[in-house]
Amino acid sequence: MGDLELSDGKRFIHNRLRVGVFTQHHMDSLDLKMSAVEQMRAKFPGESVESFRFHLGAFGISNYFALCPMYLLSGGQKSRVSFAIITWEKPHILMLDEPTNHLDFDAINALIVGLHNFEGGLVVVSHDEYFLNALCDNLFVVDNKRVDRFDGDLKDYHKMIMKQLKL
Q1: Could you report the per-residue pLDDT of 6-36, keeping only the tens digit for each?
Q2: Cα–Cα distance measured from residue 85 to residue 107, given in angstroms and rounded to the nearest whole number
Q3: Where are the alpha helices (DSSP H) in the chain?
Q4: DSSP state of 151
Q5: pTM, whole model, 2 decimals?
Q6: CA-to-CA distance for 86 and 101, rounded, in angstroms?
Q7: Which one is predicted more confidently, 111 or 2?
Q8: Distance in angstroms (rounded) separating the CA atoms of residues 81 and 65
Q9: What is d(CA 81, CA 73) in angstroms, rounded to the nearest whole number?
Q10: For the stretch 143-152, what's the b/e string if a residue is b when 16 or more beta carbons lie within 10 angstroms of its beta carbon?
Q11: Are residues 120 and 91 in contact, defined by beta-carbon separation less than 8 angstroms?
């Protein structure tokens, strides 16, 4: 994302790359006095209200919920608004940090289906094993300033950790 300085190596980022970022603190970036449509109009001026409402509707935010102040929405609905905002510009890569926080089981499953249909790259950080098992093909371990691919699934990783801890 370019927020950190490289400690080694090189980085090349194409000037047309679009990255959508969902953080676990995504709600901090929402103005709770504004509606979902007003949020999108402020962020993407020049687009029609109808196009915003259509896009929000694809995330389950329609009718009253698209037009009422954000403070009246549940945590899961606010998450859906955030997903609608980060996908508006059709990102090539989605970086998701704890995306299932505030989502109920049905919303998590809808997110899994939506991400399976996403044609770009995904980087996911999550503690939700159900979500990770349903979505991810590769597991990477971040430890001691290194990122290494782990050969195996979450069960294999758990076994390795337990063995290291001698439990």
Answers
A1: 888 888 888 999 999 998 888 888 999 999 9
A2: 17
A3: 36-43, 49-57, 64-67, 75-87, 105-117, 129-135, 154-165
A4: S
A5: 0.82
A6: 16
A7: 111
A8: 10
A9: 10
A10: eeeeeeeeee
A11: yes
